[in-house]
Amino acid sequence: MTIQWFPGHMTRARREIEAKLKLIDIAIELLDARVPLSSRNPMVDDILKGKPRLILLNKTDLADTRTTEKWMAYFAGLGYTSLAIDASTGTRVNEIPVKVKQLLHEKIERQLAKGITPRAVRGLIVGIPNVGKSTLINRLAGRAIAATGDRPGVTKGQQWIKVGTEMELLDTPGILWPKFEDQLVGMKLAMTGAIREQVLNIEDVAFFAVKELSKRYWDTMSERFNLTTEPPKDLDDADEVVRVMEDIGRKRGCLVSGGRVDLEKASGIILRELRAGNLGRITLESPEDMM
Ligand code: G4P
What we know:
The protein is 41% helix and 13% strand. It is α/β, with parallel strands linked by helices. It is elongated. β1, α2 and β2 form a beta-alpha-beta unit. Strands 1, 2, 3, 4, 5, 6 and 7 form a seven-stranded mixed sheet that branches. A two-stranded antiparallel sheet has the order 8-9. The chain folds into two domains: 169 residues, Rossmann fold, CATH 3.40.50; 90 residues, Conserved Hypothetical Protein Ylqf, Chain: A, domain 2. Bound molecules: guanosine-5',3'-tetraphosphate. The site of guanosine-5',3'-tetraphosphate (G4P) has 17 residues, from α6. The site of guanosine-5',3'-tetraphosphate has 17 residues, from α6. InterPro entries: G_CP_dom, GTP-bd, GTP-bd_ortho_bundle_sf, GTP-bd_ribosome_bgen, GTPase_MTG1, P-loop_NTPase. One of its GO terms (molecular function) is GTP binding. Required for a late step of 50S ribosomal subunit assembly. Has GTPase activity.
């Protein structure tokens, strides 16, 4: 679901998370492994302040494995523990309670030293829309709990979900907003499907996708669509990128009268196949981009 984030929504989302933070021991920040930076809330460090945090890179089934490893090393360098998961199939999801316990180990030890039997540790999943929060909550709960398509301000009675014997999770996630002041971020989120087409022009998103794929994954794209055209020599030359889009359209039979390529139809195909993972594992951001 697409949320139009106005300043009022952001304030409300922040307040809701801050109220939930009072109830929990650890925040579990969920990111999309294909776009770990663009799927990150710009104020997350400020919002989660002093709370212990576990970072989860989700949708790793769609992401480039080597780049996911680089991201984990990057987060380790910042002092965060991270875990690469796939909430849709459950890959490595069972390691979450283990990591959480490790992160809260000192607190647990202190309680034991005082003779207190520690209660189950309590966690909250936070992230921008569409990173997989509801899918993960359902996976951890072992049943359907969270309604997908969340928005701030739509609250329901909160409950604790038991995850094994030593961890509990709030059944409603903390919803954060993406950084849309940066147009590239919006495009990357649209490419991955986090922002729906209704908000952005489908041809613009596909144009951006072909440009990014030409830069990072030319061989993969060329093979998938059987391209006969050469890679763009200058990625800033729009005509060069459109030439590739047209080749894709031709190869997929997206033609209109006069043999012209139906770019809108071709755009739909490019985005659908990209999001479904048909082009293989693709990550659009790497820690090296920040250097
Ligand atoms: P949210 O609560 O953070 O908004 O996200 P949600 O769980 O609704 O997940 C958004 C979409 O991402 C869903 O697909 C969901 O199936 C998919 N998803 C979540 N985790 C993973 C993952 O690890 N790998 C892959 N490949 N997909 C994942 P959808 O198409 O919007 O809905 P549906 O077709 O699954 O019903």
